[in-house]
Amino acid sequence: MIEGRTLEQDLDTFPKLLARNATKFADRPAFREKEYGIWQSWTWSEVRSEVEAMALGFLDLGMKKGDHVAIAGRNRPHFYWAMLAAQHVGAVPVPVYKDAVADEMAYVLDHCGARFAIVEDQEQVDKILEIEDRIPGLEHVVYVDRRGLRKYDHTTLHALDTIQETGRVKRDEYQPELDRCVAGLTPEDTCVMLYTSGTTGRPKGVVMSNYNMLMSAKNSCEFDNLNETDIVLAYLPLAWIGDFIFSVAQACWAGFCVGCPESEETMQHDLREIGPTYFFAPPRFFEGLLTSVMIRMEDASDFKRKLFRKYMDHAKKVGPALLDGKPVSAADKMKYQIGKALIYGPLLNTLGLTNIRVGYTAGEAIGPEIFDFYRSLGINLKQLYGQTEGCVYITQQPDGEVRIDTVGVPSPGVEVRIADNGEVFYRSPGVFQEYYNNPESTADTKDAEGWVATGDAGYFEKESGHLRIIDRAKDVGKLANGAMFAPKFVENKLKFFPDILEVVVFGNGREKCTAFINIDLTAVGNWAERNNIAYASYQELAGHPRVLDTIRDHVEEVNKSVAEDEMLSGCQIHRFLVLHKELDADDGELTRTRKVRRRIIEEKFAVLLTGLYDGSEEVFVDTEVTYEDGRKGSISATLQLRDAAVVPVSNKIAAE
What we know:
Layout: H1 14-24, E1 29-35, E2 38-43, H2 44-61, E3 68-72, H3 77-89, E4 92-96, H4 102-112, E5 116-119, H5 122-131, E6 140-143, E7 157-159, H6 160-169, H7 171-184, E8 190-195, E9 205-209, H8 210-223, E10 231-233, H9 241-254, E11 257-260, H10 267-274, E12 278-280, H11 283-298, H12 302-323, H13 330-351, E13 358-361, H14 368-376, E14 381-385, E15 395-396, E16 409-410, E17 415-418, E18 423-427, E19 434-435, H15 439-445, E20 452-460, E21 467-472, E22 477-478, E23 484-485, H16 487-494, E24 500-506, E25 513-519, H17 521-530, H18 538-542, H19 545-563, E26 573-578, H20 598-604, H21 606-614, E27 618-626, E28 632-640, E29 642-643, H22 651-655
């Protein structure tokens, strides 16, 4: 525990916070869930009752302090309650990505030595039964949805509602033991273990204490004035640190309400009905939302398009200034209010963003046009920079200091320093305890003084004190002529175009840069329909000559922008191709948080990379793919390799 940074004794563990909320916010809504089209709600008092019944049932099942409890499913109150119930017993919840393939799930459950698994439905049960011989420590599987499971062997299978009912029936028997468990918990006890995305290798189990999570929740809630009146939408994967900090830690600390959508497919519709005041989404979400808006406007009448453009141009001019409290003329304010009545208000209502008081995005760079679009509508959208190992928060943007080119100032309680090689290090109350059963990686990441290596390269601006991130430190290299190579810098610029979904740039140690590109099927597909271009698959559309011409134009536009940066002007893309398949986590090309596994992609598509550098005009490739049901197959294609114009730069300048 860091000296001078403590928690009040009655608020230093999750069970104590739940007890506080059940009294202080007894009748306020804690969780909402939409099921079968109907919203259900639970107050904090009711949640405590549900959690305690579950914890008593877990004790009857044999759960004890230190046990690891794997949890896999969509965002449902029952899974959040299961985490809290496990914490009451002293067990450690280990959320797992629900769309993880069997091998990925087997690795996590075996690595953590899970004794219990709490899953959603028959699909997840079947996945565990398929790999149970590889998880020797697993003793019990608990499921939420009974459908399809009636004829299964229930020797070690249990319905969650039955567990709760057992807890209620045997309350007198187990309540003293539960009280002892809760009283024995300390801030230093582990409250959750979250696995990293595994960008460069096997995922690592990040061990977090009550102190880590609750200090981070306390500081971040105070930073943005989050309180019991706020509402958050829980839609991020349970296994992601972001969901735990927003939907569990901050929710428990501030006492606000967590809304759970009915499904991934209905999330956008449910977002409108929940009307969150506090919202986090990765740039990809905001990009997709804006793409859908622009697609709809393309299909609107000429009058509506002109009206939209007129008032959006004005919003971009004065909206951010109004949001930051800067002076704006009376005439501009009046015109903005007219635009709000005609355009901005109805649009925000359609998107479900009307009530947002605080919004964040992180994980990747967001395009300036996209960022400005939302802020011009009056959404207080900000950027933060964080990691699983630090309970998310490293830097945040204070109100009135929001900029697209920085990630803000150190979050409350966080110290940040820049090493001589440009790598960013931080130290905070939220710094993880260790990587589970991996002392070597722990020592490589966190030193004896608690400083954590982020793996990112960046620097602080002297005047503003804001942090700017350049790229992953391990990805920053040099071209053959000595010029700096920072692929993420170029990739993010290309992904600002709505018809480009993913980019992987190569060039370290080579004479020039090349790129693999994924198109966005929704955006490009809509363009194809408007232009009467028939296509039968992603592969066919990706190889269409007009699509390739459009992507080339985007690459050349980015090259002009990159050429203006003296330090990175050598990173212009000379040749590119549009991949015949979307990069997919199931195929190992992306992590479950959709981060590019650059090394795997380079090895998997080596023949394509060779073609880009040897001047080939086309290359045949046959690629193994994984279908949704886990079966393997293959797709083949002959890809067209294209040249892109670059802006000449001095080798001397590029290498400096």
